[in-house]
Structure formats: structure tokens, C-alpha cells
Amino acid sequence: MMRSGHRPGVSSHEARLAISFLVGVGPAAALMWVSLRRFDYPMAPKALFDDRRVFLAFAVGMGFGVFASVLTIFLSVMVAAAGGFGGTLSLFVVALFEVSFMLVYLNRPGYRGRFETTFYGTSLGLGAAATLTMASAFSLNPTLAGSPELAALLALFAVSMALILGSTGSLVGFGTARQQAIRYFARAYLVRLSHLLILFFFFTTREVPVAAASLVASLAFAAVVYVFVYREILPETLPREIRRELRRWPRETKRPAKESE
After folding, report:
1. What angle do the packed helices 148-177 and 86-106 form, to 10 degrees?
2. Which residues lie closer than 8 Å to 168 by C-beta, 6 or more apart?
3. What would the pLDDT profile of 69-91 be if each residue is shown by its tens digit?
4. Where are the domains of the chain?
């Protein structure tokens, strides 16, 4: 049987899957690099965290994101059947489920009381953001592959999710590292719930201006929270002597050697 010599084209299903993967994993991986690079060589004298635990947490977060996506779909179906205030109430459940998982993972004996747990929390949250965004991007619209406008909108959604879940994981990890798990669990829960409430109209309305305003507001909120985490929480997790060493490290490396007399 003769072959035509032409390769079969990429199906729309495969194109949607590829775009969803890039939209979900790209911002999460980039934000993980931005968040943790200050605490790795050469910006620090040595790596202040275990690379294996960082990538393990990211992988676990991605696996958890699958279950969180299933829960979200299930709650959406239940809310559509029940009506009323079910949509708002479901956000409380989703936020509690996500933050509770982070607490269970990061509050284990091997992580509790260790300063680097904050960094593992960042990676855990970003892994969850990656698959949650992938699921949303893949299921939101079957015409994703042929709609650049929708792909751009979902890219903004992915950035918003990465910022807020990376920050949420950092807060939970910081609380575990400081032996104040419940205190920072409550803060992380309020942050995640607020973000979901802001995004509510992005998922429920068909009015494009309203949905866009909801998305932009969520992105602004997530950015403010992330800046706080980046500037305050991540450096603060380090012991005082390590922080002093980091402040001296760039000056020491750039200091010219003294000329011999």
C-alpha cells in the first residue's frame, strides 16, 4: 500500500491540550524561578533549599491540582442544580480544600520547623496552579486552538492563579516553618478565598466587560499579595545569620582584590 508522503495534521484536541499545557505550566515554572533564584547559587553562597524537594513539591502540587479540578467541576454541577447562593458557598469549600491540603503536606515532621519549608510551599502552590489552569483552559472552550483572544485571556488567568497559589503556599509554609501553622493557615485561607470571590464573575457571567474586569481585579489583587510575599515572607523565613550573610555576599564577590605592595 502506497503512502501519500504527507504527515497527518495536528487535531484540534491535541492543539488545545498543547496550548493548555503551555498556559498552565509556563507561568508557574517562570514564577518558581523568579521566587527562588535569590536563594540559590550564584545569588547566594550556596543553595538554601533542597532541589529535589522543590521539584517533588511542584509535582505533588500538579497531582493535587487534578483532584482540585475534579472537585471544582463537581461543585459547579451541584451549584447549577441547586441554584441560589450555592455558587458563593462552593468557593468557601474550594479554598478550604486547597489550603488544607497545603497544610497537611507542609506540616509533616520532616518539614515542620525548617526555614526552607517556605520555599517548598511556594513550589507546591505553583504546581497546583499549573494543573488547575490547564484544566480550566482545556475545558473552558473547545475552540481554544482557533481563538488567540481567548488564549491571551487564559494566559492572564494563569498568571493570576500562579501569583495567588504561589503566595498561598508560601504563607502556609512560612507558618509551618515558624511553628505558627494555624495562624498562617487562616491568613492563606482568607487570601485564597478573597481571590476566588473576585474571580466569581469571570466564571459565571457572559458579559465580556464584567468578566474582564473580574479577571483584571483578581490579577491586581494577586500581584499585591505576591509582592508582599516576595519582599517580606520569603526573606523573613531565613535565620538572621543567613540573612546577614546574603546581604554581604554580593559585595564580597564584587570587592576588588588588594594589590600587593
Report:
1. 50
2. 98, 99, 102, 125, 188, 191, 192
3. 777 766 665 655 555 555 677 88
4. 17-41+49-238
